[in-house]
Design a protein that fits this description.
The protein is mainly α. Helix content is 82%, strand content 0%. The longest helix has 17 residues, at 37-53.
Length: 100
């Protein structure tokens, strides 16, 4: 299976998940684009460890994913955090008006 087929398969699986789970996955993907490669590698190790533990409940799985997200959030470079913050402010009409 080539990469595009694999990505398509993952997208189809994700779209069947509850909205809350989709949001968590999207947040993780967004954060992965902002962190340095060593942080990405460590988060992938954390996810592999989660799969190896084979959690028996959804709450165990969610807790582990929340840990990965927290780790990623803590390791977003300051400049990327600043740019993300500015983008959020600019997208809010009431705050954007105050900035101009």
């Amino acid at each position: 299976m080539d990469v595009s087929d694999e990505v398509l398969r993952v997208v189809h699986k994700v779209e069947r998940l509850p909205r809350e789970d989709q949001d968590k996955i999207l947040k993780m993907v967004d954060l992965l684009t902002l962190v340095p490669i060593d942080v990405r590698d460590e988060s992938q190790r954390m996810l592999r460890d989660l799969l190896a533990r084979d959690p028996s409940t959804k709450s165990e799985c969610v807790a582990a994913l929340d840990d990965v997200i927290a780790y990623l959030e803590q390791n977003v470079p300051r400049s990327a955090r600043h740019q993300t913050f500015l983008a959020k402010i600019k997208s809010r009409p009431s705050l954007k008006a105050r900035m101009t």
